Amino acid sequence: MPAGPTSRPTLHDVAREARVGVMTVSRVVNGKQSVRPETAARVRTAIATLGYQPNDAARSLKGQRSRTMGLVIADITNPFYAGCAKAIEEVARAHGYAVILCDSDEQVEIERQQVDILVRRRVDGLLLVPTANGHAYLAEEQVAALPVIALDRPIPGIPTDAVVVQNRRGAREATEHLIGHGHRRIAYIGAGAGLYTTRERRAGYREALKAAGLAEISRLDAADSATAARALRELAALSEPPTAIFAMNNLITIGVLQALDHLGLRVPHDVALIGFDDFEIAALLHPRLTLVRQPAAELGRRAAELLFERLDGRSSKPVQRVVLATELIVRESCGCRHE
Amino acid sequence: MPAGPTSRPTLHDVAREARVGVMTVSRVVNGKQSVRPETAARVRTAIATLGYQPNDAARSLKGQRSRTMGLVIADITNPFYAGCAKAIEEVARAHGYAVILCDSDEQVEIERQQVDILVRRRVDGLLLVPTANGHAYLAEEQVAALPVIALDRPIPGIPTDAVVVQNRRGAREATEHLIGHGHRRIAYIGAGAGLYTTRERRAGYREALKAAGLAEISRLDAADSATAARALRELAALSEPPTAIFAMNNLITIGVLQALDHLGLRVPHDVALIGFDDFEIAALLHPRLTLVRQPAAELGRRAAELLFERLDGRSSKPVQRVVLATELIVRESCGCRHE
DNA sequence: TTGTACGCGTTATCAA
DNA sequence: TTGATAACGCGTACAA
Predict the structure, then answer these.
(1) Gap between the Cα atoms of A170 and A168, Å rounded
(2) Which of A83, A132, A218, B18 ranks highest by number of CB atoms within 10 Å?
């Protein structure tokens, strides 16, 4: 009776069973070099008999790659990041790689701890959704030797490959769409300048306003649905309340909807609304929500592929930034009649 | 200039730098055995100077644990599973463990491939949301004494620890609630008997009907929102259409809502609805959705803790099944007036 | 085509 | 308290 995972058959066991040398077994397992078919068959039988599985820890130790990548993500329960993660895992598996999942919960101390763990595991590369600040540790020499791809947001102060979406353009188009509906008082509800995505989206909103000669109405103190709801209530209480809202992400969109519901304000009749980041049920709400869609799977896929490019030796290229297009999904909450 | 992740400083490098033996460094790193404070300080300086990080692959090879667990999940983009994953990662990290994420996409061939990969990595244990069938291969791993905890569903034909929710009871309570509203024709929309959760939920639905002397109206051909929508349209076309719907999961709930919307049927006025599995925006829909909530984070947490119990040596215990309570979140779609 | 010997970075064992 | 040495399982380099 085996005592534990450690008591698995090794190359030697298989070799003894098949009455060959260990290298013959190794060659059969890896299929790189030629082995006499007859011998190979005997080896394969022995492998099946013993239930042999190669030990990747030993392979990795031998100086090979660990065939593992680290994924440090801000919040896996955010459907957007979950979509990224799924695509990443698929690409990784297709390359024979495993993905170690780390959820930083948007906290840089956790993120740092997780990167440490990943370095100790000798992951071949890192996919990182960086928190707002404190990434100096990434510049340290030992960590710096590790290929890092930033996901969704560039890493503040650290030049690495990055895959992001057109936050600014997406926000500008959404705002322009509201302007096209004749709105003159369009409010932005979101967080402050901490995050790249936040800054970019607000910048896009402002660009559109400026081009139309309109004044900015921003609430930058909304981080989740509850604070977004409060921000909306305060905006609604103004003497000249906004007639349209641009919500910075899906949490804020939800909070805004809740608050509008409580206030008895109807969308788009009383207030028009466009949010950033699509979610599955948005097409089911009344009214159907007009949203800026981000290509989550594509983002994950491209990031993983970029990492493999680096790993495959094309590492001398300068740092790349891949920018993926967003798409304005026009439904009803903007004031359009749809379908 | 380091050439890559392989050129990291080792224990020997630190030992040379600190002018001590490798074992002294090892002892300082692990802090288990006593080292003279003076020596320890010198070692720590050397570690900092060189930026040394232990190599977990080597540790794992030496027969220690790999401090890694595998998570094979059916679909990370399902918010329910994402909630599980987040909790699992937290518990794992608290124990110094890393989590390798595998998304089987509900396909047993992929699942099997992933388990293979995890075995090769010598993970210390496995958390698995098993697909419907074909788990004979796992019996082999059991022989090899790899601890496996089933998540959300037991593994067909393989006795392992499992953490599940009260599917049957949750479904029964939901159905009873609809009966309490006076409904006599209550339809079940879901998939067939492939999955444990499916079977249990339908069983609960049937228990409630039987106790009330009502006839079953089941559609077992709905696997996603599109097929659920079709099933609902067909039910609505009956001469005596159901007056209430129990939807087996959140995808089906969404499909049902879409179909009702298209048909111009209002909830709960024309048809009452209760779904299994809560989702964030359910409280925002019109009407607010009454749902059976599953404790996703708790499920993940308990599963991870169960695994650590096994790893900590309390492995002689018989197989456990942890059953967590569901909760009927009463809002409006059932016919109740809420708030 | 096949086998032998060594080293990867770490820890356990034993000796000093 | 410390250090030298032998594994752990595999792949590379060489020899047969």
Answers:
(1) 5
(2) B18
Other residues' Cβ atoms within 10 Å of the Cβ of residue B189: 29
B180 touches strand D (CB under 7 A): no
Query: Could you please report the per-residue DSSP string of A241-255?
Result: --SEEEESSHHHHHH
Provide, for chain B, the percentages of residues in helix, strand and coil under a 3-state DSSP scheme, each rounded to the nearest 5: 45, 15, 40
Name the percent of chain B lying above pLDDT 70.
96
Q: Is B29 on the interface with A (CB under 8 A)?
A: no
CA of A138, C1' of D13: distance in angstroms: 37
Residue of A nearest to B82 (CA): A77
Q: Between the CA of residue B105 and those of A130, B96, B129, what are the distances in Å?
A: 27, 28, 10
Q: How many helices (H) and strands (E) does chain B have?
A: 12, 12
- The predicted pLDDT at position A5 comes to 42
Is B53 in Cβ contact with A119 (below 8 Å)? yes
A167-180 helix and A196-212 helix, angle to the nearest 10 degrees: 30
Q: Which residue has the tokens 């995050």?
A: A195
Q: What is the pTM of this model?
A: 0.92
Determine, for residues B76 and A86 on separate chains, whether the beta-carbon distance falls below 8 Å. yes
Residue A274, H or E segment: strand A272-276
State pLDDT tens for residues B50-75: 989 999 999 999 877 899 999 999 99
Asked if residue A170 lies in contact with residue A204, where contact means CB atoms within 8 angstroms, the answer is: yes
3-state secondary structure (DSSP) of residue A288: coil
Arithmetic mean of pLDDT over chain A: 91
Which is more confident, A79 or B5? A79
**CA dihedral for B268, B271, B274, B275, sign (positive or negative):** negative
Angle between helices B22-30 and B37-50 (to 10 degrees): 90
Q: Mean of the pLDDT values across residues A297-322?
A: 90
Collapse the DSSP code of B9 into the 3-class scheme (helix H, G, I; strand E, B; otherwise coil) and give the result.
coil
Q: Quick one: residue A63, left, alpha or beta (phi over 0 = left, psi -120 to 50 = alpha)?
A: left
- Residues contacting A47, CB < 8 A, separation 6+: A14, A25, A28, A29
pLDDT at site A115: 93
Q: How confident is the model at residue A304, as a pLDDT?
A: 98
DSSP state of A318: P
Residue with tokens 């109807």: A266
Burial (CB < 10 A; 0-12, 13-18, 19+), residue A237, is: exposed
- Supply the pLDDT for residue B3: 37
